[in-house]
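User: Here's a protein and a ligand (S-adenosyl-L-homocysteine). What would the complex look like?
Assistant: Let me lay out the input and then the predicted complex.
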Amino acid sequence: MDGDILAKELLVKKDIMNLDYEEMEEFIHSMGEKTFRAKQLYEWIHKKLVCSFDEMTNISKEFRASLDKKCTIESVRIIQIQKSKDGTRKYLMQLLDGNTVESVLMKYKHGNSVCISTQVGCRMGCKFCASTVGGLIRNLEPSEMLGQIYQIQHTTGERVSNVILMGIGEPLDNYENVVKFIKMLSDERGLNISQRNITLSTCGLAEKLTELVDKHLGITIAISLHAPDDVLRKEIMPVAKKYSIQDIIKACRYYIEQTGRRITFEYSLIEGVNDMPEHARKLAILLSSLNCHVNLIPLNPVNGRMGHRSSRANVERFKLMLEKKGINVTIRREMGSDIDAACGQLRNKNKGGKST
Ligand code: SAH
């Protein structure tokens, strides 16, 4: 069958991986089947991670055939893998409508971490970021976020223990789908990844962050701050025109109060822009009374985007100045620097979106 016709046919089918456990039960009932079928199906899809109905051997051939007619089960497909010397792998994933996103697998001693995309493109416009070139195309469905993790676990045969929402897109700009995704990912009837091992990184949509805290999920929050004051932040992150640093800090305090956990601030160091002693001093004052941790990221320069990477000496100086003020700091370990590690670069290389 012609690829385009196949894609259109798939788009009108129901995406069964999008159904949470309760929705799966309703769906099964609507097909005139008994409740226990929902458990079987949910397990095949979310625990055993099969990619076709054919593999569901405890389900009758007839029922499998009618599911196949009505539903799709493979929301994303790996179309390219880049392997780094350090074991990091970057995946280009294709969605049913032809759009592509990126995911990264990082291997640590404590387990495998997968960094996923939450949107096709991004509308936040951060000046140094590759993902925002071309703007936002669309939000990802929960199935498309789950699918990135399932595909990686399935193809490597190794359990994914940590998930980071730090790929293409702004997770809080796709709020409902991201919340549903987190619930499904941590559901013990599915992959059962502990919410503690899920990190959501946001450029600071303050209202949505407060709303998220009220959901009482046990996830870890990271804020992309990148500047110690609003004037500089507005220059590098257009979202700062809508939310001030104080709006964000207020939401962070609420998170810390409600969860008793510390918050992470990400700070990408751009040479001569935000890596000077005055910036470190201001940042230390800003964060002095917060239960937090700062993760310094030497900029990964992207062709055509703003900025150069800070020198090692500047990164170390910045770190020391914060530490002297009693702030907890780490420098992000660079992984996959020999592949297109900055998110959005691989997708841009592949014709900036739809790959045909
Ligand atoms: N939209 C979310 C998550 C995606 S970006 C957010 O803003 O947090 C993940 C992190 O990588 C963010 O801190 C982002 O600012 C940072 N980042 C993006 N491009 C980068 C680059 N070229 N070099 C260094 N950090 C980058």
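Summary: The pocket of S-adenosyl-L-homocysteine is lined by residues 124, 126, 128-129, 166, 170, 201-203, 224, 266, 268, 297, 299-300, 302, 342-343 (CB under 6 Å).
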